[in-house]
Design a protein that fits this description.
Layout (H helix, E strand, L loop, with lengths): L1 E3 L2 E3 L1 E5 L3 E5 L10 H7 L4 E5 L17 H14 L6 E5 L1 H12 L6 E5 L10 H8 L1 H5 L3 H13 L8 H8 L4 H13 L4 H9 L7 E6 L7 H10 L3 E6 L6 H4 L1 H14 L3
Parallel strand pairs: 4-5, 4-6, 6-7, 7-8, 8-9
Antiparallel strand pairs: 1-2, 3-5
Helix pairs in contact: 2-3, 3-9, 6-7
């Protein structure tokens, strides 16, 4: 654990070699990247961390969890870890966080891999919009109804489906007196204005950028990924067949191959 401006950040480091920092999305945690970090740890020093308000990190109501706040946290963490130029691998919301850290907080990267990432508008599902209209009402849902919503929502992120144990692990941080309000809080603070700001600056990126997208992503259409690739001068773009938004679970072998191949090419 690491204390940062009153927040407690859960993080781990393992392995040796060039630094690779994994960034998770919403409503997930660093758990989605753990097997990939383990596999890379023979050749890389891998960092996993939970965004404030997520996973095992603190979930204080007074701490902002919007894109801007999280981008600042990532930039601060890289300084704390004394990482001058790591490779970044980001999924979903973590893409916007990592982009804001480099475009607005002067964090420097060796490369950036974006997987089914939130980065440009439009983003956010009809469920997101419903929560934003009713954040305090949903905080008060009976726990069993909240859990049922979570299970249906997260299961919909995959194309292949999650095993019961995988789903249990992904919903666990959002249960209980701290987890339930934190879940709705992070959705309520979602603001596309930060994505418009990112979009306006994507042309400034000069580092190698690799964009992977699930061809069957029901949360973020591949058309968004294709448009993102046209906005980044250094981007390559690949769609992965039979994969939804949670590529880590839908297509682990293709993702592993792309990840290791990418890191080898860009200086691993």
């Amino acid at each position: 654990m690491l204390e940062l401006d009153g927040r407690t950040i859960a993080w781990t480091r393992q392995g040796s070699g060039p630094a690779v920092v994994f960034c998770h999305g919403t409503p997930f945690s660093s758990r989605v990247w753990r097997p990939y970090a383990d596999a890379l740890s023979n050749d890389f020093t891998v960092y996993l961390w939970d965004l404030p308000g997520y996973g095992a990190s603190s979930k204080r109501a007074e701490d902002p969890v919007d894109f801007d706040a999280q981008g600042k946290v990532l930039a601060q963490l890289l300084q704390r870890w004394e990482l001058a130029c790591p490779h970044i691998v980001a999924h979903d919301y973590g893409g916007a966080v990592s982009l804001r850290a480099t475009l607005f907080e002067q964090a420097t990267y060796a490369s950036l891999m974006l997987v089914d990432t939130v980065a440009i508008p439009p983003a956010g599902s009809p469920f997101f919009r419903f929560v934003q209209d009713n954040p305090t009402t949903l905080d008060q849902l009976p726990a069993y109804i909240h859990e049922a919503i979570l299970r249906a929502y997260i299961q919909n992120a995959t194309h292949q489906g999650l095993r019961p144990d995988e789903l249990d692990e992904l919903i666990a941080p959002w249960l209980g007196n701290d987890g339930q309000p934190a879940f709705y809080r992070q959705i309520a603070q979602f603001d596309e204005k930060y994505l418009h700001e990112i979009e306006a600056h994507l042309g400034e990126l000069t580092i190698p950028v690799n964009i992977l997208w699930g061809a069957d992503d029901a949360w973020l259409s591949p058309t968004i990924g294709r448009r993102l690739a046209t906005l980044v001068p250094t981007a390559t773009y690949t769609e992965i067949p039979s994969s939804g938004h949670l590529m880590q679970y839908d297509a682990p072998i293709p993702l592993t191959n792309h990840l290791t191949g990418w890191l080898t090419r860009v200086g691993g």
